[in-house]
Design brief:
This protein is of the alpha+beta class. Among the domains are: 273-377, Ubiquitin-like (UB roll), CATH 3.10.20; 386-421, no CATH class; 424-562, L,D-transpeptidase catalytic domain-like. 33% of the residues lie in helices and 25% in strands. It has 17 helices and 31 strands. Helix 4 packs across helix 5 (159-168). The longest helix is centred in the first third of the chain and has 45 residues, at 58-102.
Length: 563
């Protein structure tokens, strides 16, 4: 208490210094309101009467009008936004009402199902269109596409249910309705899936869907052998594709396509550097493909220069090679080349491309540049001439007559002007041919000539069949070897027998080459008959010559029997 009193007394007796200056400004020296003009904000109107105008700082009075303007702007924008929203809602309501009026019974114009446009159709019309157009589907791997019957894929569309789903699209949903009017809307189809059928079709056609990986290879660039990079392949993942369709068939087929699930296949060879030297040797020569016609015995050569066929080469794994690799050629490139060249063949002749490509591949793998391809022949039509019989026609065309009868429904006679089928001579050549070996038999000359590499190797006297059991002319092959064959019809044992053709289709009876026969195990026949017709359809040689031929001619060697 004493301190307070002391303070009060001191306070009372001494001037107040802290506030004196302030009070002097406010009280001792007042300033009339109108004597000092103050700056005012633009657009501001001072009130008529402001007592104690200097009670607050000037800046606070100047800010008040600004806050009032901001509040006014916010109100304006809120009102404007509300108006725009109301307008949009009203417009959407009117648009929805218009959609309902215009498309009250039809599907909205932008609606599709399974890739089929259904806009503007009734449900019944849409169901009919779906049923007719969904019969086939596109199967795609995103790069290529194939068309398949839906039934072959085990897929059945419920057209009525899909049409109803398309009709319902956009109704009760304004956003979907607008999308249906101005854009595209896809409705998922209702599909039943037979997984077993789908899996079987995909497995059956897996090769068509797949893209083989390409091994690293070599090519010839400006006369120099360079390596080429490998390329990944792709194959269809059948199980994953079936599972994807089964899980949600509507989503999987929404756009009318069946998307295959593909998986990558890595190449077997990623570095072909070890093959450069072998390729350099091969590519020093053109690739001469010999096209051999076993019927005529003629050959032509299709020659591809190194600059062309050098780009076909790649490397394959080969456990028998010291490097573990072997050069081979790209199947597609070889096939394209042979197909383009084969246009020079006439309409009766053709190549079996798989066989021809394999022959080229084998030659390259063996380090050769001289592959060959065999020419094949189609059946042909023959117009019967006056005086012709089935037997005379068969003799002239060089085929046993029973085969011509069989090819024409078993006919026993012909008439002039009639067109009959002559079977392909390939019927009598089931084995792979050797273009460098050929045996020629002359019925009229009673001799046999043997050729190797185009050169005459042997020329022997021979005997062929008697008129009642003739040797039939034609182009045949060596089809069997028997050291000592038995002919039960005539009780003959025939040494060094080589079958050439069967006179009766399907019968276990063969005419061929053999040496002097024996009867009863001891009677040697026809030793002095060479050069005359004495056999029952076979070609007789001396025992020594029959043995030589037996050991030289493997199965497949062409035998040409001339009338």
């Amino acid at each position: 208490m004493s301190n307070k009193r002391a303070y009060s007394q001191a306070q009372a007796t001494q001037p107040i210094r802290v506030r004196t200056h302030y009070m002097q400004q406010r009280v001792a020296a007042p300033v009339p309101r109108r004597a000092v003009p103050r700056p005012q904000p633009q657009g501001y109107h001072a009130p008529q009467s402001v007592p104690y105008a200097n009670s607050y700082p000037t800046r606070r009075l100047a800010q008040a009008p600004t806050r009032k303007v901001q509040r006014s702007n916010k109100k304006f924008y809120l009102v404007l936004a509300a108006g725009v929203t109301a307008f949009m809602l009203m417009s959407c309501a009117m648009m929805t009402l218009g959609i309902g009026i215009i498309y009250g019974r039809g599907i909205l114009p932008g609606v599709n199902a399974a890739g089929i446009s259904l806009g503007g159709l009734s449900q019944a019309e849409a169901a009919q269109k779906l049923a007719s157009e969904w019969s086939s589907l596109r199967v795609t791997d995103e790069q290529r596409a194939w068309r398949y019957q839906a039934s072959d894929l085990g897929l059945t569309l419920d057209a009525n249910a899909t049409a109803k789903a398309a009709y319902d699209q956009g109704r009760g949903n304004l956003g979907s309705a607008i999308a249906g009017l101005i854009g595209r809307v896809d409705t998922q189809p209702v599909v039943n899936v037979d997984a077993a059928t789908l899996e079987n079709t995909l497995n059956t056609n897996a090769d068509q869907f797949s893209q083989a990986a390409v091994n690293a290879g070599v090519k010839l660039v400006n006369g120099q052998v360079e390596t080429t990079p490998p390329q990944n392949g792709r194959t269809v993942d059948v199980a994953a594709t079936v599972a994807q369709v089964q899980q949600n068939p509507g989503a999987a087929l929404a756009d009318g396509r069946l998307e295959l699930v593909m998986r990558g296949v890595a190449p077997a060879v990623t570095d072909s550097t070890p093959m450069v030297e072998q390729a350099r040797h091969l590519l020093s020569s053109p690739l001469d493909v010999r096209i051999f016609d076993p019927v005529t015995g003629d050959s032509v050569y299709w020659s591809a220069p190194p600059e062309q066929w050098g780009n076909w080469l790649s490397a394959d794994p080969d456990s028998n090679s010291p490097t573990g690799l072997a050069l081979t050629a790209n199947d597609a490139a070889v096939r394209d080349y042979l197909t383009a060249q084969s246009t020079i063949l006439d309409s009766t002749r053709y190549l079996k491309m798989d066989e021809a490509v394999a022959n080229v591949q084998q030659a390259i793998r063996e380090g050769r540049t001289n592959p060959y391809a065999r020419v094949y022949h189609h059946d042909r039509q023959y117009v019967v001439q006056p005086g012709d019989t089935i037997t005379s026609i068969a003799w002239d065309v060089g085929e046993p007559y029973l085969y011509i009868q069989q090819a024409n429904g078993g006919i026993s006679s012909v008439s002039a002007g009639q067109s009959i089928t002559i079977p392909s001579p390939d019927t009598f050549m089931p084995f792979k041919v050797d273009p460098d070996k050929r045996i020629v038999v002359s019925i009229s000359g009673q001799w046999v000539k043997v050729y190797e590499g185009g050169n005459l190797k042997w020329n022997w006297a021979a005997s062929t069949g008697i008129p009642d059991s003739p040797t039939w002319p034609g182009i045949y092959q060596i089809i069997s070897h028997e050291p000592n064959a038995y002919a039960g019809n005539w009780d003959l044992w025939m040494p060094h027998f080589m079958g050439v053709y069967q006179p009766i289709p399907g019968a276990d009876f063969t005419n061929g080459f053999h040496g002097f026969p024996t009867r009863g195990g001891w009677q040697l026949l026809w030793t002095n008959s060479l050069g005359t017709k004495v056999t029952y359809g076979c070609i007789l040689l001396s025992n020594e010559n029959a043995e030589l031929l037996y050991n030289w001619a493997e199965e497949g060697v062409v035998v040409e029997i001339q009338a």
